[in-house]
Amino acid sequence: MSGPWQFWVEVLPALLRGALLTLQVSALAIVLAGLGGVAVATARTAPAPPLRWAGAAYVEVFRNTPLLVQIFFVFFGFPRVGVRLSPFQSGLLALALYTAAYNAEVFRAGLEAVPRGLREAAAALGLSGWRHFRHVVLPVAVRICLPALGNNFVALVKNSSLVSAIGMVELTFVARDLEAWTFRSFEVYGMATLLYLALVLLLVWALRGVESRALAYLQLRER
Amino acid sequence: MRWTVVAANLPYLLGGLQGTVLLGLLVLALGTLLGFLVGLARLSRGVVYAAATAFVELFRDTPLIMQIFFLFFGLPAVGIRLSAFLAASVAMTFFAAANTAEIVRGAIQSLPRGQWEAARSLGLNRSQTLRWVILPQALRRSLPPLMGLFTTLLKDTSLAAIVNVFELTTAGRRVVERTLASFEIWLTVAALYFLVCYPLSLVTQRLERRLVAEVP
Amino acid sequence: MSRTDPIILLQGVHKWFGRLHVLRGIDLEVWPGEVVVICGPSGSGKSTLIRCINRLERHDRGRIVVDGIELTDDLRHVDAVRREVGMVFQQFNLFPHLTVLQNITLAPVLVRKWPREQAERVARELLERVGIPEKADRYPSQLSGGQQQRVAIARALAMQPKIMLFDEPTSALDPEMIQEVLDVMRDLARRGMTMVVVTHEMGFAREVADRIVFMDEGTVVEVAPPATFFTSPRHDRTRAFLSKILR
Predict the structure, then answer these.
(1) Does the pTM exceed 0.90?
(2) Chain A residues within an 8 Å CB radius of B78
């Protein structure tokens, strides 16, 4: 084998391994950022003022500073106070903390968007507590939240490329490495871009499935 | 902790911050201009629509850092050599334009269909309707998300550091390399970004609330 | 065109929304100076019908001729018809970023190419006529629903149309504001305007209409002058509708 095929046979497996690591760190960060977002949104809407302030401060601090700086702070800054994390751990932590701030805003908006009239109607019907939350708040909030959450997760996959800056061998890092080694930057970055596009579209497709399933499930059980 | 390092290097970091703000403003100005054109192109049909859509999807669905690498390292392969600064600003301009286009399109589509119908039933043609009825309203609605985009752009200028353009993050990295005070300096750099971005976020939220109050 | 030609002519008009057959062969003629009220249950296709007359909806089969111009895919014909046909919507659809005066002068200046002074003079006369001359420099959001709808009528009249279409003009109004809008429409009818009005206001229909068209399930069931329509409707469906709406 020779010619153009030879090049791709050498390069593609490395890129795919990079893409796999991108997928892994993104998937883990999505889970952590989802849980973190719920926690922060709960704090932001809590009855106790100090909790609300802490939640608001968290959201503002993480949304108004660059993710790259947060990654540098975790990876380079934490060791100075005795916390030493690997590039993977640092990247995962920073990605999750950053996206959690955005998720918290989505959850809060979703909860607030449940129309008051709907709550009152549910209360009048004698639905209360968990059943009210399950049958009234949740379906409406899911419908409002899921598209925005999807946007945050797509952004997360793209943002995971920044972890290459601290040496995590994910897709962007592999692409840079291959480029420096093969000098065929056009092909390498083009293919890496396509792989990101594929990951993002895969995620969008999966999220759409989750959305329609979730809605179908919630609505089916309402009747 | 050596906080005196921060004081000693603050002027240098502020120089970096200046670079960040200038780069952000440049990218915002060029990006929104281009973005409006792309957004309008997405209202048309055929090839123009397809090209505009491809542009928007490509620059919104792939990482900005890849776009910078592509322009900086990739274009020389086809004979176009851009400086790091130019590569970063062009990539970010395209990124800003793709996002602006989506904002403008979203704002136009958020207007009630009755606005189009009323204008058309009065005999205004499509471009008159767009110019006198739709765009003035859509631009007002675009303002808060465009302010939000500006905050995003200011944060994303940090990516220019990866190709060594001088701005706040690059300044921070150079100071850290020299002084090894990584915790103090990165915290300071984050604080400086926050000082610029947070007021912008507040203005954005204000505009959003006012718009919600005005729209019936 | 002789005096005896209809100013609006519909022949075998069909319209589908996807698989939904909303107009099933409509034949209708409207004569110059005539006031035609269209009524019927919701979903009967009456709004779609009136929206076809200035091509806010495209009909799929049949002919629509307005003032001697047939409505086709030719946009010049559509624009020509729209210049001669004014429309008033249920939701007013005023332009919220323009003042009342700007709302009214926009189309005459852009489409009729009138000088601004002329357009403003006509606009103020029309505001006088609809009874709110003092609101010229307000924005729509500062007006009540009834006032907004009167501005919308003035806006349509500023183009000096030959025909006025009203699509449920009082349905979005609070009850106490309905009369002020109907008064303006009555005045318009007295001055000889050709009007097609979709409405549930049967008092208005009885008093002002020359003919009443009853629609149901996409067809014209019955056409009659008010006297016969209300006292001796021929069809069961008309009787059923009237018994519900007149109570």
Answers:
(1) no
(2) 186
* Amino acid at site C224: A
Contact C110 B128 (CB under 8 A): yes
Give the pLDDT confidence score for residue A146 in this predicted structure. 85
Question: Which chains lie within 8 Å of chain A at 3 or more CB pairs, if any?
Answer: B
Q: Per residue in B27-82, pLDDT tens? A: 999 999 999 999 989 888 889 999 999 999 889 888 999 999 888 888 887 888 88
pLDDT of residue B213: 65
Contacts for B152 with CB less than 8 Å, ≥ 6 apart: B99
Closest Cα of chain B to A7: distance in Å?
A: 16
Say how far apart CA B62 and CA B55 lie, in whole Å. 11
Which residues in A lie closer than 8 A to residue B176 (C-beta atoms)?
76
A77 to chain B: which residues are within 8 Å by CB? 182-183, 186-187
> What is the phi/psi pair of residue B78, to 5°?
-105, 20
Does the distance separating the beta carbons of B136 and C97 come in below 8 Å?
A: yes
Q: How many CB atoms lie within 10 A of CB A221?
A: 10
Hey, are the CB atoms on C106 and B123 less than 8 Å from each other? Answer: no
pLDDT in tens, B167-214: 999 999 999 999 989 999 999 999 999 999 999 999 998 888 887 666
Residue B12 DSSP class: H
Name all contacts of C131-138 with Cβ < 8 Å and 24+ positions apart: C131/C180, C131/C183, C131/C184, C132/C100, C135/C100, C136/C99, C136/C100, C136/C101, C137/C99, C137/C100, C137/C101, C138/C99, C138/C100
CB A175 within 8 A of CB A11: no
Chain A residues in contact with B71 (beta carbon < 8 A): none
CA A91/CA B27 separation, integer angstroms: 27
Chain-centroid distance of CA B39 in Å reads 15
- Asked whether the beta carbons of residue C94 and residue B137 sit closer than 8 angstroms, the reply is no
What pLDDT does B216 receive? Answer: 43
Look at residue A113 and tell me whether its pLDDT is greater than 80: no
In the block, tokens 């955005």 appear at A102
Tell me the mean pLDDT in the region A139-160: 86
Beta strand residue intervals within A45-171, DSSP E:
none
**Is it the case that chain B and chain C have 3 or more CB pairs lying under 8 Å apart?**
yes
The alpha carbon of residue A58 is apart from the nearest alpha carbon of chain B, in Å, by 12
The answer to whether the beta carbons of residues C93 and B115 sit under 8 Å apart is: yes
Tens digits of residue pLDDT in C169-219? 999 999 999 999 999 999 999 999 999 999 999 999 999 999 999 999 999
- The answer to whether B141 and B207 have CB atoms below 8 angstroms apart is no
- Taking every pair of C-alpha atoms in chain B, what is the biggest distance, in angstroms? 72
Report yes or no on chains B and A touching (3+ CB pairs under 8 A). yes
The mean of the pLDDT values for chain B is: 91
Give the number of A-B residue pairs with CB atoms closer than 8 Å: 122
Minimal C-alpha gap between B74 and chain A (Å): 4
Distance, in Å, from the CA atom of C223 to the CA atom of C216, rounded to the nearest integer, reads 12
Beta strands in chain C (DSSP E): 8-17, 20-30, 35-39, 61-66, 69-70, 85-88, 163-167, 194-198, 211-216, 219-224
What one-letter code names the amino acid at C231?
A: T
Which residues of chain B does C107 touch, with a Cβ-Cβ cutoff of 8 Å? 119, 122-124
Mean pLDDT value across residues A128-156: 79
Q: Which of A60, A183, A193 sits opposite B201 (nearest CB)?
A: A60
Residue C191, number of CB atoms within 10 A of its CB: 9
Q: What residues of chain C lie within 8 A of the CB of B121, using their CB?
A: 54, 56, 82, 85-87, 156
pLDDT in tens, C82-128: 999 999 999 999 999 999 999 999 999 999 999 999 999 999 999 99
* Number of CB atoms found within 10 A of residue C126's CB: 20
Q: How far apart are the C-alpha atoms of B106 and B98, rounded to whole Å?
A: 12
Cβ distance B182 to A196 less than 8 Å, yes or no, reads no
